[in-house]
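[Solved] Which block belongs to which protein?

Original post:
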Amino acid sequence: MAADIAGYDPGRRWHDHQLPGATATASIGGAPFHDVWRSIATFLRVGDIVRLRWHADTSTDQLTAHGLHRDDLHIEVRRGARVWTFLLQVSVRPPDARMITAART
C-alpha cells in the first residue's frame, strides 16, 4: 500500500506529496462496526491499488483561534482508469496530539 502526506512545511510552502519530515498515524477502533471502513472493505477488489492520502492542517480560522489543528485521512482506490477517494478519518486536536506531525525547524 502506498501513502503520502500533503501539507505546509514550517516555511509555509505547500507540498502536495511527501511533506518533508512528516509522520502520520491513525487507528480505527472497532473496524467491523465503523460504517465507512466496512463500506470501503466491501468495495475493494483483487487488483485494486490502494493509497492513503494524509492532509495535514486543513484547519479553519475558528479552529486555529483555539489552538486546534485539523488533519484528514483519505483512502484512494484505483481500479484500471477509475479512481475513487473516500474520507476515512478527521482529527481535530491540539498540536501535541495530532494525527500528523511535521518536522520542526
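(Second protein starts here: sequence line, then its C-alpha cells.)
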Amino acid sequence: MIGQIVPPLWTWGVILAAEPTYQEATYRCDRSMRSHLLAKQKLEANPSAEAVRDLEASEIALIDCQDYDLLRKRLMLIGLDETALGYMALKAIEAKATDLQDVIEIHEIRY
C-alpha cells in the first residue's frame, strides 16, 4: 500500500516545490527564443549595425534557455517525468496569459 502512495505524493511534492521556479525559467526561455527569432528576422529583412547588435544581445539572452534546461534535467534526476514537466510548462504559459490572445501569441512563432 505504501509503495503505491509514496511515488505520487513525491511527484506532487516536487511539483509544488519546483513549480514557481520552473514556471519562471520556462517563461524566460520562451521569451529569449522569441526575441532571438525576431532579431534574426529583423537582420534578414533590414541588415544594419543596430540589427546585428540586437541579434548579439538576443543570443546572450539565450542563457535563460541553458538555465531552463539545467533545471529540467535536475527535476528529471529526482523523479519527474516528461508528463509532469509538460504540466508545469503549460501552467507557466497559462499563468502569464490573461486572455486567449495572449495564449495564442505565446504559442505562436512567426516566420
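Accepted answer:
You had them paired correctly. Confirming on the second one: The mean pLDDT is 85.
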